[in-house]
Amino acid sequence: MTASWRAAPATAAFDRATFAAAAEVISGVAHRTPVEESTTLGRVVGKRVHLKAENLQRTGSFKIRGAYVRISRLTEEEKARGVVAASAGNHAQGVALAAHRLGIPAKIFMPVDAALPKVAATRQYGAEVVLVGENLNGSMAAALDEVERTGRVLIHPYDHPDIVAGQGTIGLEILEQVPDVRTIVVPTGGGGLLAGVAAAVHSVDPGIDVVGVQAATAAAYPASLAEGRPVLLEDLHTMADGIAVGMPGDVPFRLIREHVREIRTVTEEQLSRAVLHVVERAKLVVEPSGAAGVAALLADPGAFRGPVVVVLSGGNVDPLVLLRIIRHGMTAAGRYLQMRVLVQDSPGSLAGLLNKLAASGGNVVSVEHTRTSAGLAVDEVEISVELETKGPEHCQSVLEALRAAGYTILAP
């Protein structure tokens, strides 16, 4: 990506008036999302913890804020040409709704494997959707070609002052909703949300810690901050597609260097456990990227000054993907046990094993019965079992009960 599509300088000012003006622009368009105290997380970290529920925002994420500010400030001539964007989902929906509200034609390029619910929602908001590219880089290349061919204005997902200003309105809301906040934890991809929140809150109170969180397998900021410039990270593999961005933007990078205390990373297991935690305990549906801040709190509870506000940045997750993530989270939390058990191939052997599992208090989810395998004797069968448990100690007691009953466990 180059700076050729940038319509405002990277040196734009970001003061209190900047974010107040952006808040005025989105008034009546974006929701003032609620902040809910999480007593469960509070007990974990030993201080008050609040969740800023941007997953309840219009379009299911914070993206409508920046998209609307950016598009609303286009010139009349630019509006007539229309806008174009590239996105895997959340930015696409934000641009589509913002453009629809302003009566501007929008064309969105999305990867061919983009989640079907996100594609459908983007179309329902009124945008033309084109599926192209194996990943976001391919979609962005197509969007830039569209800009060159038609003159449409590119609405970048994070690298523009108006985008950053719009996302920063979340910071102003947090200051009003939790006036004594000392730490704000923010999921981070390209950096527009983190930069906006950090600059906005520091325009009022520079003493507040702002912490960014990235997926460990898609974290471009640590290396970029070490180099002192945005550095491309080519290999990205994470379930948190909303923050899987290979290179920081110039505009947010400058602000993050100035205002952000640190960037932390979380593993895939920690992300899945965080999604499970928010669903179970906060009764909120979030996507993996939206739960990154919660993952950071659970991974290192003592690292943050309280009171803490964690931004839940989005809730757009495919239900089938959510099922897999929850199962992954249960496994990571020691509440989902998978094992292979060797038993004699005789009538009643499967029923005997299942009765033993039932007596142990485990909830059997699936059973696979294998009679033919190179590693099995003629009179042996292998039974693969998946079951829900109450936690790591319960998993261990189930295994011990089976071993005590004479069962051979091939793989817990």
TrEMBL record:
Coiled coil: none annotated. GO terms for molecular function: L-serine ammonia-lyase activity; pyridoxal phosphate binding; threonine deaminase activity. It catalyses: L-threonine = 2-oxobutanoate + NH4(+). It comes from the Bacteria. This is L-threonine dehydratase catabolic TdcB. It holds the Pfam family PALP. Catalyzes the anaerobic formation of alpha-ketobutyrate and ammonia from threonine in a two-step reaction. The first step involved a dehydration of threonine and a production of enamine intermediates (aminocrotonate), which tautomerizes to its imine form (iminobutyrate). Both intermediates are unstable and short-lived. The second step is the nonenzymatic hydrolysis of the enamine/imine intermediates to form 2-ketobutyrate and free ammonia. In the low water environment of the cell, the second step is accelerated by RidA. GO terms for biological process: isoleucine biosynthetic process; L-serine catabolic process; L-threonine catabolic process. Gene3D superfamilies: 3.40.50.1100. Residues 338-412 form the ACT domain. Belongs to the serine/threonine dehydratase family. Keywords: Allosteric enzyme, Amino-acid biosynthesis, Branched-chain amino acid biosynthesis, Isoleucine biosynthesis, Lyase, Pyridoxal phosphate. CDD domains: ACT_ThrD-II-like, Thr-dehyd. Its cofactor is pyridoxal 5'-phosphate. In the native structure, TdcB is in a dimeric form, whereas in the TdcB-AMP complex, it exists in a tetrameric form (dimer of dimers). The keyword Amino-acid biosynthesis applies.
